[in-house]
Design goal:
The protein is an alpha/beta fold and about 250 residues long. It contains 14 helices and 7 strands. The strands form 2 sheets. A 4-stranded parallel β-sheet has the order 5-4-6-7, with helices on both faces. The chain has a 3-stranded parallel β-sheet with strand order 2-1-3. β6, α13 and β7 form a beta-alpha-beta unit. The chain is flat, with a radius of gyration of 18 Å.
């Protein structure tokens, strides 16, 4: 039976999800729809995160104002706003309040912003989303690396709890600090060696120490790219792994 409708939800299709890694976004939307949400895609423009990271504050402010204008009406009605890239999603929750000080619409958007893991945990608790006891992830070990932006602003508890809700999965959160990529920092030639050195401090050795069948999870697109480049291992967004757990066991 279909779960009770939870109403509308806005999914922020950030630039990375739209242009480089669509799979986590697809997994999120599929899971949220299974949990009873009516998902609307917001993919009209950039949130301003990239501009802000380069010090282009005026440009980021214009982008923030445009995004707030598109989202405020629904946010004021209590419609949640979610996304899979923490650095983009949490820009709405944190930096928008500084870029648009005293703006009530920006405050409404910030208040409506949620990590999708929070909504999916509630759906599992309510029985709207049921992960089968026998599933393709059962018996597997998952190691999870949290995004720095996420750690700083909301923490990783909801993501870790969601992974641990997969029956039979063994979940460990890595205490590995920053992956070293830090947005575009690690892509820049002058920072490459430092970026790799940061990854080598703890993250890369921890990933290399895992068995070949361990599942590597990371919420940040930059973290997943850095893990692939530094260790040759493919990391997945946690929501991709949860979606796999809904499939019939092979």
């Amino acid at each position: 039976a279909a779960p009770a409708s939870q109403g509308e939800l806005i999914f922020l299709a950030d630039s990375f999800t739209t242009f480089t890694e669509p799979s986590p976004g697809r997994a999120a939307i599929e899971l949220l729809e299974l949990a009873g949400w009516q998902v609307r895609l917001e993919d009209a423009a950039c949130c301003g995160r990239a501009s802000l990271s380069k010090g282009l504050v005026d440009q980021a402010g214009r982008m923030a104002a445009g995004m707030v204008q598109r989202l405020a009406g629904e946010a004021l009605r209590g419609v949640p706003i979610v996304g899979v890239e923490p650095s983009c999603l949490l820009t709405l929750r944190d930096e928008y309040l500084a870029l648009l000080p005293g703006d009530q619409a920006a405050q409404a958007v910030a208040a409506a912003t949620r990590m999708p893991e929070e909504l999916l945990l509630a759906a599992i608790a309510d029985g709207r989303l049921v992960l089968p006891t026998r599933n393709p992830v059962s018996g597997k070990r998952i190691v999870f690396h949290g995004h720095c932006h996420q750690k700083a602003l909301v923490g990783t508890a909801a993501t870790t709890a969601l992974l641990r809700s997969i029956p039979g999965a063994e979940v460990t959160e890595l205490d590995a600090g920053c992956c070293g990529m830090a947005g575009s920092f690690g892509f820049e030639a002058e920072h490459y060696e430092l970026s790799m050195s940061i990854g080598e401090l703890r993250l890369f050795p921890a990933v290399r120490a895992e068995a070949h069948n361990t599942i590597i999870a990371a919420t940040g697109v930059s973290c997943r790219q850095q893990i692939a480049h530094g260790t040759g291992r493919a990391a997945q967004h946690p929501l991709e792994i949860v979606l796999q757990a809904l499939a019939a066991p092979g």
